[in-house]
Task: inverse folding
């Protein structure tokens, strides 16, 4: 541990963006000798968010989703370790992704949250929202959002990109 105790919380979901975020978090944690914590949140449909006995609640479906999330979680944590990360703690949570990430960051006293961003635009973002935006708004600490480099999406981005290449 360095002079300052630093806790980095890495939120992972198996996406390409989360993979890049994982590499950044491992590199950063190793460089500044920080504790690295990992969280994966199993996404539940809204009707399973209630308590047992709530209308529409299906315990068998909940257990199946939890089991699949647990298997993915083990693989993701293993991948972080194989890439050189020393994991101080790994947490599987079930529920609303942004709330679980922010809640765990508060519990751990995290100094930084690192996560990927899929970069949704338009109707997808309006309907599904942005987990990274919600985490940024409610996090008790700074949030590092890692995005994949992608081809330009809009004509204005294309012309800017072409001008830079010249």
Result:
């Amino acid at each position: 541990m360095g002079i300052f105790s630093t806790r980095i919380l890495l939120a992972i979901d198996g996406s390409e963006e989360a993979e890049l975020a994982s590499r950044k978090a491992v590199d950063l944690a190793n460089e500044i000798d920080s504790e690295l914590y990992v969280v994966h949140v199993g996404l539940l449909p809204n009707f399973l968010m209630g308590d047992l006995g709530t209308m529409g609640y299906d315990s068998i479906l909940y257990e199946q989703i939890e089991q699949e999330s647990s298997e993915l979680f083990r693989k993701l944590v293993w991948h972080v370790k194989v890439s050189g990360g020393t994991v101080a703690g790994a947490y599987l949570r079930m529920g609303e992704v942004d709330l679980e990430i922010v809640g765990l960051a508060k519990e751990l006293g995290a100094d930084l949250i690192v996560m990927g961003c899929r970069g949704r635009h338009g109707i997808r973002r309006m309907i599904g929202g942005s987990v990274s935006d919600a985490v940024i708004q409610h996090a008790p600490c700074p949030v590092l959002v890692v995005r994949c480099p992608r081809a330009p999406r809009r004509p204005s981005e294309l012309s800017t990109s072409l001008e830079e290449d010249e």
In short: Helices lie at 16-32, 59-82, 97-108, 122-128, 131-138, 155-165. The radius of gyration is 18 Å.
